[in-house]
Amino acid sequence: MKRMFWIIPSLVLLATGFFFVTNSRAATETAAYKLVRQEGAFELREYDTLHLAKVSMPASDKRSKNMDGGFMKLFRFIDGQNEKSEKISMTTPVIIERGEKESSMSFVMPQKSVAKGLPLPKGEVKLDRIPAVKVVALRFSGVSNSVKEAEKLAVLQAWVLKQGVEVEGSPLFAFYDPPWTPGFMRRNEVLLRVKAK
């Protein structure tokens, strides 16, 4: 009886650990980049072209602030609701861009799927890309919200100004972890595109 008392909690713990490992950032392909320079939490990076599945909303739509519904539309696309009924692996990060006229949420497409040709999406999902680009990035942890994002963007903009780096376009917010990840373990980033010379 005592043995059963230890076996059951051990199996539950093992199953929980397996779930978190297989559904964590470590088990997911992440968009590759070359680190050009690092200064504390600030990084200058170079990305090759990023191929995206994207959902957009007008900035005037109240739901656009958090891209409500965007995640599930993108998830259905990678789960097989596309022209080939083909499943596509989830990758990180999920990217949110908040512009003056529209906001968007994007999934970065895995290299294997890009190489063999992405299936055409249905509905509101569109295929897009960010051409090879240099960015400045600031990493932060915790549960993200509009106040924290505005604070981190201001910190990054101040650093960029100090460095004399010219940036362009709307800021990008990158999220790397599933929603059940504890806040202190989450990896979030704000990115600004460096102006091409």
Question: Could you walk me through the main structural features you see in this protein, from its secondary elements to its overall organization?
Answer:
The chain is an alpha+beta fold and 197 residues long. The chain has 2 domains: 1-29; 30-194, Regulatory factor, effector binding domain (Multidrug-efflux Transporter 1 Regulator Bmrr, Chain A, Alpha-Beta Barrel). The protein has 4 helices and 11 strands, in the order αββββαβββαββαββ. The chain has helices at residues 2-22, 70-78, 111-116, 146-163; strands at 29-30, 33-39, 42-47, 50-58, 91-92, 94-98, 102-108, 126-130, 133-140, 167-175, 188-194. The strands form 2 sheets. A 9-stranded antiparallel sheet has the order 2-3-9-11-10-6-7-4-8, with helices on one face. Strands 1-5 form a two-stranded parallel sheet. A hairpin with a 2-residue loop joins strand 2 and strand 3 (42-47). It is globular, with a radius of gyration of 19 Å.
